[in-house]
Amino acid sequence: LAPAGPNRSRVLGSLYRDERVAELSTYNILSKMFLDHILRPAEIKSFEETLKPHQLAKIAISSNDRLASAANEEETSDSSVSTRTGPSTVLDRAVMEHNLLASSKIYNNITFRGLGALLDLTPGAAETMARKMIEQGRLRGSIDQVDKIIWFEGSREDDDAQGKAGGLGDVEEAEDTGAPFTKHWDMQIRTTAANVEVMVQHLVERGLVKATATMSH
């Protein structure tokens, strides 16, 4: 539930590589967080049931954030656009920030409206959350207020794995437009290795394969 960013990623990395964690009921969501995969409502609901009351504490939206979120108020008249102006609980905020960071690993850019659809927020509230994370150094990117687009920077080469978020519409999938071939190849190897590790863990949990001391990555 810590703020999404480099510090949390390092902690998740340490936990993910501890083989004992695979025995936890929350291993699936932990692996998705580590691999920067988009978290879905059903997964969040299941994880929520394992938390303690103080971990589900309500949080208030500041007046400044509320005003900033109202910048795109005219778009909220569309029934397909969420009317939420911010997260309501500590878990809610952590999941929204995680999904925002995860989307930066997948796309070059995303519109305020597209990000709002992903986070279940108004477009203005989604932009406000992205702006705060950029200002705090937890998200690399810039915001185009005129075209209402958030541009992500350096998202495809910095992390171990990626997830896919489908059906958002207002997004542009990232393309490798100049990274050295070797870096792109290394990234693919790291991604494949991480995904294979997850699959092996699932097979071990189901008793379909037997883990041995000689198993290596």
From TrEMBL:
Keyword field contains Transport: no
Keywords of the record: Signalosome
Domain PCI as annotated: residue spans: 1-157
Top-rank taxon: Eukaryota
UniProt keyword Membrane present: no
PROSITE patterns listed in its UniProt record: PCI
InterPro entries: PCI_dom (IPR000717), PSMD12/CSN4 (IPR040134), WH-like_DNA-bd_sf (IPR036388), WH_DNA-bd_sf (IPR036390)
Cellular component GO terms, alphabetical: COP9 signalosome; cytosol
Family that this chain belongs to: Belongs to the CSN4 family.
Protein name (database record): COP9 signalosome complex subunit 4
